[in-house]
Amino acid sequence: MDGRARGSIVNVASVAGLRPAPGIDFYGASKAMLVALTRSLAVELGPTIRVNAVAPAVVKTRFAEQLVANAQDTVHETYPLARFGEPEDIAHAVTYLLSEDSSWVTGQIHVLDGGALLKGGV
């Protein structure tokens, strides 16, 4: 990007990069690095390029299939919205951040977690 380009970058982090969780130390550390990189790039690339990130909790994907299956009966205890995320939940947020509707948003980490962090979960 040579300084003439305009646009928006959206990184996909995780709530694990915002709050430690047992058993996923290196994953969380890599996502914390992505959070820091998002904020640094927002400063360096502005005003022509906006840089933001989404930080989802558990989303029903193939990657989380076993976790979702094992916790489906107790999801209401951890997530105030009583459900895991759907891929569409993340897609809608990314679409917003890439659009002109978010033209005054940069350096932000959008937590998409159904309220899980409010209850101390990841």
What do you see in this structure?
- This protein is α/β, with parallel strands linked by helices and 122 residues long.
- The protein is built from four helices and three strands; from the N terminus they run βαβαααβ.
- The chain has helices spanning 25-45, 65-71, 75-78, 87-98, and strands at 7-12, 49-56, 109-112.
- The N and C termini lie far apart (35 Å).
Keywords:
3 strands, alpha/beta, 122 residues, single chain, three-stranded parallel beta sheet
Element-by-element helix/strand order: EHEHHHE
Terminal-residue CA separation: 35 Å
Fraction in helix? 25-40%
- Tally of separate helices: 4
**Largest beta-sheet details:** 3 strands, parallel
Average predicted local confidence, pLDDT: 94
Strand order of the largest sheet: 1-2-3
Which class do the helix and strand fractions yield?
alpha/beta
The fraction of residues assigned to DSSP E strands is 5-15%
Could you tell me the number of beta strands? 3
**Coarse morphology:** elongated
Question: Uncertain regions: pLDDT < 50 for 5+ in a row?
Answer: none
Gyration radius, to the nearest Å? 15 Å
